[in-house]
């Protein structure tokens, strides 16, 4: 197969080799028998470590990202924390984006304090600041998120990769929002790609899963695989199967949602009641030039709106939305709205008047009408 769209639609392999089915089987077994010589039949021993149902989505994701291998985890947080724990030892330095998913930012802060890891968070969109923080011989991992939640900061992956390589550090990219449809970090020099697969990879808000993809199968990847094995941080077989099913429509979903997001972003930018729109596809976004260089076929389905006024006004607008669902998460077929400062709570870096929009597959006209009605000052 020459195109990634065809590869995804076929789920990586068109037929189940055992039955000829066009849909792979679910393997619910938690343990696997050995033969009379005590050898395993197919290399599977216990479900805490591996399951045949994991293989189709892992192999598909590795191919879509241009990586050497991939592994599923129980959640995006499980994937991220496994990578950081495996790759950064006490006394070593971890450099991260300042703008990132708040849950991981909290875990990193607490983990680094507890285990003596030197953690530095910087504005990773500023390559000079990133270079100053990455110290050769001390920094083992550079972790960036792009586009970064919830302001959609765009980090120059190739530039960050060059900085990490100079210091003999590993570069990991949280590419949850971009997905392989819009960005392939490994092709830009990244060593590791993380996805909160719960989001757009699955696309239906019914699976909790995470994934890591490696550029090469080396000792660092072996350490991550061992971390997953020891912790047992794996999804269930049904979740893996649902994830694989969702990935087969990834390209058509992302192309539709991204197109709608771009149209809404341009419309909202000039609308009364909106102070600013944050979307990498807008020329007004600080990261637009970098996004145009490293993203393709669109800029993703996430945008944020800074309403005119304070948190009270932002919450009023959110309360008036009827098509958008007020809920946490992103990447599903339904459009969601979140007041990030409320969701993140104390210590949130999100502006109090920011509403985060995850664009789904509804009619563009319906979403626009919904936003127009909610933003109207008289809609009390």
How would you describe the overall organization of this protein?
By secondary structure, the chain is of the alpha/beta class. The protein has two domains: 4-247, Type I PLP-dependent aspartate aminotransferase-like (Major domain) (Aspartate Aminotransferase, domain 2); 250-375, Aspartate Aminotransferase, domain 1 (Alpha-Beta Complex), CATH 3.90.1150.10. The protein is 37% helix and 15% strand. It is built from 14 helices and twelve strands. The protein has helices spanning 4-9, 55-65, 76-87, 102-115, 127-133, 157-166, 179-182, 219-231, 237-247, 250-269, 288-294, 311-320, 340-344, 364-375; strands at residues 69-73, 93-97, 118-122, 139-145, 170-174, 192-195, 210-214, 274-278, 302-307, 325-326, 336-339, 354-358. The protein has a seven-stranded mixed β-sheet with strand order 1-7-6-5-4-2-3, with helices on both faces. The chain has a five-stranded mixed β-sheet with strand order 8-9-12-11-10. Strand 2, helix 4 (102-115) and strand 3 form a beta-alpha-beta unit. Helix 2 (55-65) packs parallel to helix 9, helix 3 packs across helix 8 and helix 12 packs across helix 14 (364-375). The model has no long low-confidence stretch (mean pLDDT 95).
């Amino acid at each position: 197969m020459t195109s990634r769209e065809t590869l995804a639609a076929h789920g990586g392999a068109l037929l189940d080799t055992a039955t000829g089915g066009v849909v792979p089987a679910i393997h619910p077994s938690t343990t696997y028998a050995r033969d009379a010589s005590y050898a395993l039949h197919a290399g599977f021993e216990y479900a805490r470590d591996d399951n045949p149902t994991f293989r189709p989505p892992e192999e598909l994701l590795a191919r879509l990202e241009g990586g050497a291998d991939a592994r599923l985890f129980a959640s995006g947080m499980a994937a991220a924390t496994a990578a950081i724990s495996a790759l950064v030892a006490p006394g070593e330095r971890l450099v991260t984006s300042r703008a990132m998913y708040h849950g991981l930012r909290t875990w990193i802060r607490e983990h680094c304090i507890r285990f003596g890891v030197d953690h530095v968070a910087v504005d990773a969109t500023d390559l000079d600041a990133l270079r100053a923080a990455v110290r050769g011989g001390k920094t083992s991992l550079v972790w960036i998120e792009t586009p970064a939640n919830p302001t959609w900061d765009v980090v120059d992956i190739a530039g960050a990769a060059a900085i990490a390589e100079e210091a003999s550090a590993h570069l990991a990219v949280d590419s949850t929002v971009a997905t392989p449809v819009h960005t392939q970090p490994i092709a830009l020099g990244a060593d590791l790609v993380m996805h909160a697969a719960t989001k757009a990879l699955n696309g239906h808000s019914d699976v909790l899963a995470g994934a890591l993809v490696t550029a090469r199968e080396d000792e660092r990847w072996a350490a991550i695989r061992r971390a997953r094995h020891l912790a047992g941080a794996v999804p269930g077989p049904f979740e893996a199967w649902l994830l694989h099913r969702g990935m087969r429509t990834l390209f058509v979903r992302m192309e539709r949602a991204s197109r709608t997001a771009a149209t809404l972003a341009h419309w909202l930018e000039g609308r009364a009641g909106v102070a600013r729109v944050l979307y990498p596809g807008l020329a007004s976004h600080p990261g637009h030039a970098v996004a145009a260089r490293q993203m393709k076929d669109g800029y993703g389905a996430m945008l944020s709106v800074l309403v005119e006024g304070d948190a009270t006004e932002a919450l009023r607008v959110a309360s008036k939305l009827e098509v958008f669902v007020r809920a946490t998460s992103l990447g599903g077929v339904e459009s969601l709205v979140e007041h990030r400062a409320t969701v993140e709570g104390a210590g949130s870096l999100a502006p109090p008047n920011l509403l985060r929009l995850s664009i789904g597959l509804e009619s563009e006209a319906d979403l626009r009408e919904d936003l127009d009605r909610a933003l109207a000052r008289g809609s009390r």
